[in-house]
Design a protein that fits this description.
CATH superfamily of the largest domain in chain A: Vaccinia Virus protein VP39
CATH topology of the largest domain in chain A: Rossmann fold
Mean pLDDT of chain A: 96
CATH class of the largest domain in chain A: Alpha Beta
Number of helices of chain A: 10
Organism (chains A, B): Deinococcus maricopensis (strain DSM 21211 / LMG 22137 / NRRL B-23946 / LB-34)
Shape of chain A: globular
Keywords (chains A, B): Cytoplasm, Methyltransferase, S-adenosyl-L-methionine, Transferase
Number of strands of chain A: 21
InterPro entries (chains A, B): PUA-like_sf, PUA_sf, RlmI-like_PUA, SAM-dep_methyl-trfase, SAM-dependent_MTases_sf
GO molecular function (chains A, B): methyltransferase activity; RNA binding
Protein name (chains A, B): SAM-dependent methyltransferase
Radius of gyration of chain A: 22 Å
Structural class of chain A: alpha/beta
CATH architecture of the largest domain in chain A: 3-Layer(aba) Sandwich
Oligomer: homodimer
Helix content of chain A: 25-40%
Strand content of chain A: 25-35%
Distance between the termini of chain A: 68 Å
Chain lengths: ~400, ~400
């Protein structure tokens, strides 16, 4: 069977250990055409079915370890249905949330985010691409969507040999739409630009965490790396005043619109490098009772870790210095390569340098509509910790 | 100043790193009398104040890194007040919960659990012992308690040179009392025997986790290492039937009383070794829709880890094999020496061996009335994970 992906003993051992990915270097033969293919070990024993692409560094992404399963488009559709069933059970108190979280839902490389009656799709594998149209059709019909947009940008698709572009795959999707999510003091509304916003238009992974911090909002509040006000919108209802810091004037302009949409007038917008602005606030002797620090991923690759550690530590140290006793800070890393233990080690170092004693109020991760799959650490990338200064 | 604890450079570096404990081997001079003492480096520079005991392996437990602070009984009382303030803010939906969590509340070695109008105290340091009476008096008066019991047992106190025994420190405490905690389907009542029960009478650290699992209870349910029904009492309201497994007939007898107290008649009690019983259930082809696995700490010391790994993996593997697709399992390790990453690695290995695909619904730790202190990993010991079998 030349049409099967044949794994080296190391590749087969990788699957046996429970991780669904096999690198090209651990394969002995790969089919020419990307798609769903059978997987075998070197002795021809069937190991299941996978999304296979010889051009991709991760050449094999296991769909099922059961050789008896019929892995076809109906199989993928059943996985999609299971993902949608899970969200129906979660019943998120929001109309913007994740519908499909790649490996977390057994659909490698596929991300689907919902924004009310619209969805935004990102597909990162050539093997799934021939089935994308049918999956989108099924999704749109099942949820009664008005439009589905593909946000097909970035290096991943190019590496898979796929075209990039932003296209409507179903119906029509507006350039801008309004959604809402639950906050500690009632619903929070915000605008999303699905064609141009970050990721699929917004950072949905922090949805639950934003509401958690909102419950602690009081006094002077600070939102560092605010983007379009993701955390700030949850700080404004409880705080006397909120300062948003972001390097992007366009993001702050949308934040201002979002604040208006929610009727908040207690906000200032600072277009600045966060490191510089935090240093200035410290020099000016400012203090903030509630702080959100939600920086971009500093460690996109494992080799970025030492620099990422320094950047995270400096930011956290500066924020801790702005926090009075009793103040609460939410701090995040969205870098998969920064482990829970790295992250909390870094925080402990920053607290020791700042000579403050901190209580951990909560450790969390991405919202449950971004489910972790046991044994696939890549599906759990977000670290979110709520700290209270006690001394 | 011979009355100060003088640290070696390594001991001083340990404090500078943020961890409050210094081992005897990292000290140069220790006062003869256990108590609150000043701490200095080798050049006589003040490093703050600590609970110090030359007889204890952990000879120095820093209270404050601020040499200007006056560390005395009033200082300890202020720490106690801060711990009680935090619980007042948490306002737990239960009348049994932890009031003082040792280092988590800046009171090294001190544990206080509340059971309605009573409290149970465990003090593990000779340095704090002279102040215990005053602290208990303050606690009892502030909360209007009817009695406070000392559960002073075990090796820790002997190693500190302290007497052991079970004594009323304030008022009167009954041999048995009834408490309640929030469950997914209403309050759950249970009996506590503060003189003879596990720990201070009950496992309060799993309080929130029990309610979380309770929300998933359905069909046939299994509570492995049930003790007096801690999880089972939360499974019974939603499940068709619950089997409790415990090696202690006395624990099961109290579980039976607790079930009666809550009006549950859908429970069977199996006095057995959990490993054996799980094997028998598997052989009999039994399946359980909801499972709680809450074993004792298999790794009390770091050197127990390899054996602990094997024991945890066998138990989890056996439980996973009893779980149908759609089933939910809560699995726990209360061993501090088993890291989050060890624990989830073990679970992933068990799932790979069982050939099941698992969604992580939730990762948690002990209830927030057992607060973690940033930089003191020992204050966060509990791993609690909710898994759903998806395939």
């Amino acid at each position: 069977m030349t049409n099967a992906a044949v794994l080296s003993p190391r590749g087969a051992a990788r699957l046996a250990s429970g991780h669904p990915w096999v690198y090209r270097s651990d394969t002995l033969n790969l089919p020419d055409t990307p798609g769903i293919h059978a997987v075998q070990d070197v002795r021809g024993r069937p190991l299941g079915w996978a999304l296979v692409n010889a051009r991709s560094e991760i050449s094999v992404r296991l769909l099922s370890a059961d050789p008896a399963v019929r892995a076809d488009e109906a199989f993928l559709r059943a996985r999609l249905d299971a993902a949608l069933d899970y969200r129906a059970r979660l019943n998120p108190d929001a109309d913007a949330y994740r519908l499909v979280h790649g490996e977390g839902d057994g659909l490698p490389g596929l991300v689907v985010d919902r924004y009310g009656p619209y969805a935004v799709v990102q597909n990162g594998t050539a093997a799934l691409e021939p089935h994308l149209g049918a999956l989108v059709q099924h999704l749109a019909e099942r949820l009664g969507l008005q439009g589905v947009l593909a946000r097909h940008e970035g290096k991943v698709r190019a590496l898979e040999g796929l075209e990039t572009g932003i296209d409507e795959l179903y119906g029509r999707v507006p350039d801008r739409l309004e959604v809402q999510e639950a906050g500690a003091r009632g619903p929070v509304r915000y605008l999303v630009e699905p064609r141009t916003g970050q990721k699929t238009g917004a950072f949905l992974d922090q949805r639950v965490n934003r509401a958690l911090l909102g419950a602690y909002a009081r006094g002077a509040a600070l939102d560092v790396f605010s983007y379009h006000g993701s955390f700030g919108l949850h700080l404004a209802p409880g705080a006397a005043h909120v300062e948003l810091i972001d390097a992007s004037g366009a993001a702050l302009a949308r934040a201002e619109e979002n604040m208006r949409l929610n009727g908040h007038t207690n906000v200032t917008y600072t277009e600045a490098n966060a490191f510089d602005r935090l240093r200035d606030l410290e020099s000016a002797g400012q203090r903030f009772d509630t702080i959100s620090l939600d920086p971009p991923a500093f460690a996109k690759r494992a080799k970025d870790l030492p620099n990422a550690y320094r950047a995270y530590k400096e930011l956290n140290l500066r924020c801790l210095k702005l926090l009075p006793v009793g103040g609460v800070m939410a701090t995040t890393s969205c870098s998969f390569h920064v482990s829970d233990s790295d992250f909390h080690g870094m925080l402990a170092d920053a607290a020791a340098d700042a000579r403050v004693r901190m209580r951990v109020l909560h450790r969390g991760t991405q919202a449950p509509d971004h489910p972790e799959r046991l044994g696939v650490p890549e599906t759990r990338y977000l670290k979110f910790t709520l700290l209270e200064r006690v001394e």
